[in-house]
Amino acid sequence: MQRINIAVFASGDGSNFENLVNYFSGSAVARVALLVCNKPEAYALERARRLGVDASVVTKAELQQPELVLPLMRKYNIGFVVLAGFLPLMPNYMIDAFPQRMVNIHPSLLPKFGGKGMWGHHVHEAVKAAGETETGMTVHWVTPQCDGGTIIAQRRVALLPEDTADDIAHKEHLLEMEHFPKIIEELLLRCGD
Description:
Layout: E1 4-10, H1 15-24, E2 30-37, H2 43-51, E3 55-57, H3 60-63, H4 66-75, E4 78-83, H5 92-97, E5 102-106, H6 121-129, E6 134-141, E7 151-158, H7 165-192
Parallel strand pairs: 1-2, 1-4, 2-3, 4-5
Antiparallel strand pairs: 5-6, 6-7
Helix pairs in contact: 1-2, 1-7, 6-7
């Protein structure tokens, strides 16, 4: 199996990006070849610089230009795309270019707490407000519908009544750090079969 080049799309801190880079470092299965970020001030770009991974800033408007983005994907021979805290909706041309090779991570147990405006702390506050007894992470295929793609995997964690939104965020983030790279690796191994 030829090693698959991954492009990670992120909008913020980039902790999942760094986790994926470290997980696939030295892997025969895949490597993170590129970070694409829509915000030039995002800390994910600093992580990419520190980790020695090429990065490109592609604004929300530029993302709508296939003549700009697809050549970038070809330049790095990208075979799989991971959305990790990437806020803009992925345009149809990208979904068509990476069928069943583009996933998103969402910080709740979809279909609960998904859709437009449900990202980051907004999700954890909604989980708290609803009095949920558990939360978790969902990895799903990317489709034109926000958080609407087929669920690939979910991991759960119990919540206590006294957990704050910050506590919920911390518990969910630990799940991401532990499980997200392994789920991606399993998908890549299936893609290579």
